[in-house]
Write a structure and sequence with these properties.
106 residues, mainly alpha, two-stranded parallel sheet, elongated
Length: 106
């Protein structure tokens, strides 16, 4: 997560980039992964994310829950793969960044 810069200073907006979308993993025109490959790859991404203290974000479309090949089973497996990560305390990120002492000098 980061505060994008606007007009030469950090914005109060906190951006949290999307890392995985269910459709990208399962759709044949994109990655077309099997359930097990998708879960394995997501587990590796979550582990990398933990190594650098990142935030893992997953977009799983509500209509994908009803898909026979993937559905709720894949969703639960993905959550299990991601779930080993420690909780990110995003509330602390809502505070604007502290200005650098160098920029406060006149």
């Amino acid at each position: 997560p980061y505060h994008p810069w606007v007009n030469g200073r950090p914005s109060p907006l906190l951006e949290i980039p999307l890392l995985v979308m269910d459709g990208t993993a399962r759709a044949p025109k994109y990655m077309g992964l099997s359930k097990s490959s998708a879960v394995e790859r997501i587990g590796r991404l979550a582990a990398r994310c933990r190594l650098v203290g990142g935030v893992f974000t997953l977009l799983y479309h509500n209509d994908a829950i009803d898909m026979p090949l993937y559905g709720v089973d894949l969703y639960c497996q993905m959550l299990d793969a991601i779930g080993a990560a420690a909780r990110f305390e995003w509330e602390k990120e809502l505070e604007p960044p502290v200005p650098c002492a160098i920029t406060q000098r006149h």
